Amino acid sequence: MTARDRTRRPVSKDKNSGARRPAARARRATLPMPSWIARKRDGAELDDDALRAIIDGASRGLVPDYQMAALLMAIVWRGLSPRELGTWLDAMVASGDRLSLDRIPGMKVDKHSTGGVGDKISLCLAPLVAACGVPVPMMSGRSLGHTGGTLDKLEAIPGFRTALGPRAFERVLEKAGLVLAGQSARLAPADRLLYALRDATATVESIPLIASSILSKKIAEGADALVMDVKVGSGAFLPERARARALARTIVELGGRAGLRVVALLTAMDQPIGRAVGNACELAEAIEILRGGGPADTRALTLRLGAEMLVLGRRARDRDAAAALIEGAIGSGAGLERLRRCVALQGGDLRVIDDPRRLPRAPRVKEIRARASGWLTRLDAGQLGRGATLLGAGRLRQDERVDAGVGIELDHKVGDEIERGERLATVRFNDPARWSAARTLLEQAFVMGAGPVRVSRRMVLETIA
Ligand code: URA
C-alpha cells in the first residue's frame, strides 16, 4: 500500500456525473502549480512556502502526477539552489515519521551505495561494524535496472522479514546492534511517491533529486552519520566520474546542513565486486568474508567502508586503527555472530547462514569459456548486471519478483592470464529462455586482449568529506 493509498480523502459528488470524487480535487486549484512549474522551467527559484506546499501536496494526493512530473522535469534541467534543496529535503523528511533512536547509546551510522553489480558489501559490513560497537540502522532498497538490491539478497534467506515497523526496527537494532530492513511506508512517504513517478518519467538522473531522495530516508530512519559509497564506471548508475563527484559533494554538503555527518567515497564499478553476481550467491560470498575468506576486493572494500563508519561512529581515532578493529571482528567470528543475531530476530532461517550450501541454487548450469588465450582486459559490470537481470536476478519493473537462485560465479577478474578454453564463469538459471536472452550479453562482457593489462587495485578513487 502506498502512502497515497493510506491517505483517507473526503469524497464529494461530482455535479455533472453524480459520481463520487475526492473533495481533494477541488482543493488542487488552490496550489498554483502551473505558475510554479513555469518559474522553475524559466530558471527562477521557488520560495520555501511553495516548496513545502508542493511536497506536502504531493504526499497527500493534492498534486496531480502530470503537474508533479512536469515540475520534476523542470528540476532535472534547472536544478535546485542550495536553499531550495535544503527546504525540499526538509519537506520530504517532514512528509512522514522520523524515528528517534536516542534510546540506543552511541552514534548510529549507516552506509548507502548508489548501487552496483556484485555489491554485497552491506551484508558483511553492517554486522562487522555492529560487532565493533557502532549501531547500524540500515534501510536498503531492492534491485532496479542492472544493479542489485540488498533487500533481494536478504530475502534469499527463508523467512527473513525486511518489512519492519518502527518498534521492531528499533528492537532489532537494540538487540543485534544492526537492523537490515526496507523503507517503511511511514518514513519519507513523499520520496516513495516521487521516486515511482521519477522512475516512470525519466527524471531519476538529477543530482539534487537523487541527493534529497537518499538523505530523506537516512534522516527519517534516525541515523546520525552516513558513509556514502558513490559508484563510478560502466556498472554504476552515474558512470562518469565528474557526475559521481558532483553527487557525492552535494550529499556531503546537504547532509551536513541537515545535521547528518556524511563521508562519501567514489569507488570503482567497472568490473563487479568479488566473484558472485546474483542474490543467494552474493549472500554466500558475504558470509565467506565474515568467516575470514572471500575475494580480496570484497574484503578490501568492506574494511575501508567499515573503517570510515567506525571513525564516524567515534569508535576509532583513525582509519588504520578502525580497520584493525574490523579485522579483529572477522577473526574472532564476532561479525558472523552479529549477522546470526540479526537474521534470527528478523525471522530468518539460521541454517542457511551456518551452511550457505542450503541457500537457493538454480539447477541449470552453463559455462562461459575463453575463445582465445590472452589476458582478460575488460569484464563489463554493466553488461553482466543486465545479463543477470535477464536471468531473473533483478527486475526491469518494480512489481517483478526476483529469482534468488540464479546468478553468475566468476572464475577470473581483469588482468588474469587465461588459456584458450579455460572457464571464465559459471551461469546458473532456471528458465532456458532466460539463458538464451542473456547469453550474448554475458559472453560479450568478457573481453580478451593479446597482452597484459595494468590493473589498478585501488577501489577507492576519492574521499569527499
Ligand atoms: N537511490 C535513491 O534512494 N534515490 C534516488 O533518487 C536514486 C537512487
Q: Secondary-structure map with pairings?
A:
Layout: H1 3-6, E1 11-13, E2 20-22, H2 24-28, H3 33-41, H4 48-59, H5 65-78, H6 82-94, E3 109-113, H7 121-131, E4 136-140, H8 150-154, H9 166-176, E5 178-182, H10 189-200, H11 207-220, E6 225-232, H12 241-257, E7 261-268, E8 276-278, H13 279-290, H14 296-312, H15 319-331, H16 334-345, H17 351-354, E9 364-369, E10 374-379, H18 381-391, E11 407-410, E12 417-418, E13 423-429, H19 432-444, E14 446-449, E15 460-464
Residues 195, 204, 209-210, 213-214 line the site of uracil.
- Catalogue the ligands: uracil
Given this structure, which CATH class of the largest domain is correct? Alpha Beta
What is the overall silhouette? globular
Strand order of the largest sheet: 3-6-7-15
Q: What is the name of the CATH topology of the largest domain?
A: Pyrimidine Nucleoside Phosphorylase, Chain A, domain 2
Rounded radius of gyration (Å): 23 Å
Range of strand content: 15-25%
| Helical content band | 40-55%
- The CATH architecture of the largest domain comes to 3-Layer(aba) Sandwich
Largest sheet: 4 strands, mixed
Count structural domains. 3
Report how far apart the termini are.
37 Å
Give a written overview of the molecule.
This protein has 19 helices and 15 strands. It is of the alpha+beta class and 465 residues long. The protein has three domains: 3-11 and 22-79, no CATH class; 109-357, Pyrimidine Nucleoside Phosphorylase, Chain A, domain 2, CATH 3.40.1030.10; 361-449, Pyrimidine nucleoside phosphorylase-like, C-terminal domain (Aldehyde Oxidoreductase, domain 3), CATH 3.90.1170.30. The strands form five sheets. Strands 3-6-7-15 form a four-stranded mixed β-sheet, sandwiched between helices. Strands 8-11-13-9 form a four-stranded antiparallel β-sheet. The radius of gyration is 23 Å and the shape is globular. The two termini are 37 Å apart. The chain binds uracil (URA). The site of uracil has 6 residues, from helix 11.
